[in-house]
């Protein structure tokens, strides 16, 4: 009892020692330290990304403040113009200057694209440049200025027609060809014709006391000075690490209308579009996007904020961002250095720990590996451990001895098994050969018995039927002669009797021909297949005339065949008639003759193909069997069987290919006449 307990405890104690030694050696270096390092790297990476997002958010604030400053400045400048003494001087009845000249001078000075004065009725009193058509006067900004409020400014979207009413140059500058952009929302548009305008209006008083509004605007489409100024303010020199690049963009909806992002060297990415994800978040939900985004052709740390027009509708976006790649590379380089240092330290210390532990558990692993090899079928595996005085060494030597005995027993069993398999294969081969012979002999015996029975029955039937047929035919002729001219009254009935007597005679003849083909064999001679086919067609012409069947011929055979002419005609006529019956609604009958080689012998192939109803595989396998027919009310089922007998007698073959609904093709192959 105590011995059994001791044996069961030893493996458990051995496994425990090996596990503890490995844990002591590897757990601190390969588990605890990597976990701590992973947590530290994760926290550092999150802080790094948060710093980048914080920076781009600050950049967006600067860009936003600049745009707000532009809006405010435009409104203040228009208000200053409306309150200036010169403005009121040119409005006076005895004015010495021109209002248009003042507007033109002021527009150029403050950098506007258009400036005009309109009254409350929508009349344009003066403009710079000269307006092409009457512009809209119902903008919220204009209405606010006319109502006496402080100068109103904002961003408005002008249609191309509205821009053209102000200046054709502005309409042309607003037009941008859309560039196909990956990840953008699909669109059917090819151009962007609308314009984004910094729109401002300020109230002005006319000499008659009426209210008017000074209206001015700057088109932002392709306004590169505007966007480059933003980029210069946000991303000054040395504000980004080497290799990074700051960018700024103004969007009309999701189309870049002013940007310093390059599509490729020398061309800005005007007309490209923002990704669907950014569009949905900023324009769809009104959120500010602060995250990494794919911009045209690379990844950028990006910030997008929605732009709202004077109607309160989100109509575009303001974007700033900087290239992510330099920051990512710096981050990855740092990670690589940290990980490489950890790996180097681990590589230097772990082997020392393992060497101390291996002297204990390595012998056990060799024994375990040897047992595993034996279980996988390698009976020659051995521990090959040197003899030592410890317990593990003695177990290894004893295991090798036991494996030698097992390998010898296995070799003997394999030899006995191989010998038994050889004997079984020999007996099986003999049995299969005997079964094949028996099957062939049985088939031949059954066929011989059938033919013999058919021959006896046919001879008796022919004898018993031919005599009554002769009597019937003779009496029928006597009846005709007795009736004389009156026999014409039953002309149809007499004809039917003649046809049926002739049909009975043909059936008897076919039975005799099938049962005793040697008695009907005619003399053989050389024939060209084309002439035989030509002779067969008149014999079936009456059947072709009853249907809408087109006959196609392809006579390419240059060789002659050796066979009785009537027998070959009988075979071909039988195949042609079957093809005609297979096409009751019409079709195409194709007759081909061409040289063909079969089993190394030269010969001629004659094909009879139809486009009729076709046959299933089961029917094709039975059509050459005697008395098998698919014609329920006519036919004896001997036509194809007799045809096969006639062809085989001349050393030829007859085969059939068919598919239901696609027609059938019968091929007669005969050896070349020598």
From TrEMBL:
UniProt-annotated location(s): Cell membrane
Give the EC number(s) listed in the UniProt record: 2.7.13.3
What chemistry does it catalyse, as a reaction equation? ATP + protein L-histidine = ADP + protein N-phospho-L-histidine
Highest taxon above the source species:
Bacteria
Q: The HAMP domain covers which part of the protein? A: 358-411
TM region(s), chain numbering: 21-44, 332-354
State any single GO MF term. phosphorelay sensor kinase activity
Q: Which GO terms describe its cellular component?
A: plasma membrane
This chain belongs to which protein, by name? histidine kinase
């Amino acid at each position: 009892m105590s011995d059994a307990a001791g044996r069961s405890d030893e493996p458990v104690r051995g496994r425990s020692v090996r596990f503890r030694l490995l844990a002591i050696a590897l757990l601190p270096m390969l588990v605890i330290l990597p976990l701590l390092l992973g947590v530290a790297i994760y926290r550092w990476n999150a802080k790094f990304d948060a710093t980048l997002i914080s920076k781009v958010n600050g950049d967006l604030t600067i860009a936003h403040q600049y745009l707000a400053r532009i809006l405010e400045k435009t409104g203040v400048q228009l208000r200053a113009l409306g309150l200036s003494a010169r403005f009121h001087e040119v409005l006076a009845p005895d004015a010495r200057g021109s209002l248009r000249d003042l507007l033109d001078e002021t527009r150029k000075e403050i950098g506007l694209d258009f400036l005009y004065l309109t009254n409350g009725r929508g009349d344009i009193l003066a403009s710079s440049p000269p307006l092409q058509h009457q512009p809209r006067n119902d903008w919220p900004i204009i209405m606010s200025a006319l109502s006496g409020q402080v100068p109103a400014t904002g961003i408005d979207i002008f249609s191309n027609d509205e821009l053209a009413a102000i200046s054709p140059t502005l309409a042309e500058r607003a037009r941008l060809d859309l560039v196909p952009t990956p990840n953008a929302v699909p669109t059917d548009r090819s151009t962007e014709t609308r314009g984004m305008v910094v729109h401002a209006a300020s109230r002005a008083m006319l000499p008659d006391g009426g209210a008017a509004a000074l209206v001015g605007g700057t088109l932002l489409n392709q306004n590169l000075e505007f966007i480059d100024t933003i980029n210069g303010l946000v991303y000054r020199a040395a504000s980004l690490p080497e290799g990074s690049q700051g960018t700024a963009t103004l969007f009309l909806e999701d189309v870049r209308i002013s940007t310093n992002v390059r599509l490729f060297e020398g061309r800005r990415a005007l007309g490209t579009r923002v990704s669907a994800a950014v569009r949905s978040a900023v324009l769809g939900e009104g959120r500010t996007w602060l995250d990494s985004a794919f911009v045209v052709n690379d990844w950028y740390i990006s910030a997008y904020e929605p732009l709202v027009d004077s109607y309160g509708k989100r109509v575009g976006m303001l974007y700033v961002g900087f290239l992510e790649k330099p920051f990512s590379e710096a981050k990855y380089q740092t990670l690589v250095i940290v990980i490489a240092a950890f790996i180097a330290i681990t590589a230097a210390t772990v082997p020392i720990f393992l060497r101390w532990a291996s002297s204990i558990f390595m012998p056990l692993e060799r024994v375990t590996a040897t047992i595993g090899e034996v279980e996988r079928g390698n009976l020659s595996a051995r521990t090959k451990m040197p003899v030592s005085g410890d317990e593990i060494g003695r177990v290894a030597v004893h295991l090798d001895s036991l494996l030698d005995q097992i390998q010898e027993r296995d070799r003997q069993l394999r030899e006995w098994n191989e010998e038994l398999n050889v004997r079984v294969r020999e007996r099986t081969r003999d049995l299969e050969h005997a079964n094949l012979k028996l099957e062939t002999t049985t088939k031949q015996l059954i066929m011989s018995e059938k033919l013999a029975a058919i021959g006896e029955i046919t001879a008796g039937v022919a004898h018993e039927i031919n005599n009554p047929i002769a009597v019937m035919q003779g009496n029928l002729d006597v009846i005709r002669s007795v009736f004389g001219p009156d026999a014409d009254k039953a002309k149809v009935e007499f004809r039917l009797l003649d046809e049926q007597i002739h049909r009975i005679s043909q059936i008897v003849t076919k039975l005799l021909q099938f049962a005793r083909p040697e008695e009907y064999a005619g003399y053989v001679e050389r024939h060209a297949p084309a002439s035989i086919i030509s002779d067969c067609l008149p014999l079936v012409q009456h059947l072709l005339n009853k249907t809408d069947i087109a006959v196609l011929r392809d006579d390419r055979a240059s060789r002659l065949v050796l066979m009785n002419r009537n027998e070959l005609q009988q075979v071909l006529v039988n195949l042609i008639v079957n093809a005609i019956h297979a096409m009751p609604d019409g079709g195409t009958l194709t007759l081909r003759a061409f040289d063909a080689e079969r089993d190394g012998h030269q010969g001629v192939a004659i094909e009879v193909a139809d486009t009729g109803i076709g046959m299933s595989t089961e029917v094709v396998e039975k059509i050459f069997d005697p008395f098998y027919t698919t014609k329920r009310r006519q036919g004896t089922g001997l036509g194809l069987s007799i045809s096969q007998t006639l062809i085989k007698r001349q050393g030829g073959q007859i085969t059939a290919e068919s598919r239901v609904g696609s027609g059938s093709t019968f091929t007669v192959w005969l050896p070349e006449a020598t």
